[in-house]
Amino acid sequence: MDMCLTRRSAGVLRLMWLASMALVTALSLLPDVGPPAVFDHVDLVAHLIAYAWLALLPRLALRQSDRTWAWGMLGLGLALELLQGLTPYRSLSLWDMLANTAGVGLGVWLGGLVRRRLPRT
To answer: Would the keyword Membrane turn up in this protein's UniProt record (predicted)?
Structure first.
């Protein structure tokens, strides 16, 4: 790794990433699950935050030069939206796909900022 991150902390980040992917998958496919409607389009904000988190964790834990995980997170968002369209209780949303994509971009960017500020090994 090219930053001051121990193997143990990188492993914890990887476990958090896997658990977060499982949680996002479950919440995306369960009926009637979502954030409370405290303002218009709160679901889009939730998508943005969730996918930013899903992109931030591997950006910190994995090798900097390997960004195939970012494509994987984009694929996860697309696949989950398509699966929602196949359920009788959820619907496919292009706006959700856009929020997912923006979230991945935000997470990659934030992860880059954090990595640059950590001491080099």
So the answer is: yes
* Structure tokens, 10: 């990188």
Measured in whole angstroms, how far is the alpha carbon of residue 62 from the centre of its chain?
15
**Using one digit for the tens of pLDDT, what is the confidence trace for 57-106?**
998 888 666 678 889 999 999 999 999 999 999 899 999 999 999 999 99
Q: How far is CA 97 from the centre of its chain?
A: 12
CA nearest to 24, candidates 84, 66, 69: 84
Q: Are 82 and 93 contacting, i.e. CB atoms less than 8 angstroms apart? A: no
What gap in Å lies between CA 58 and CA 70, rounded to an integer?
8
Instruction: Give the DSSP per-residue string, 43-68.
Output: HHHHHHHHHHHHHHHHHHHS-TT--H
Q: How many Å from the N-terminal Cα to the C-terminal Cα in the chain? A: 8
Backbone angles phi, psi at 80, to 5 degrees: -65, -40
Q: Give the global pTM.
A: 0.86
Q: How distant is the alpha carbon of residue 102 from its chain centre?
A: 10
Per-domain residue ranges for the chain? 7-117
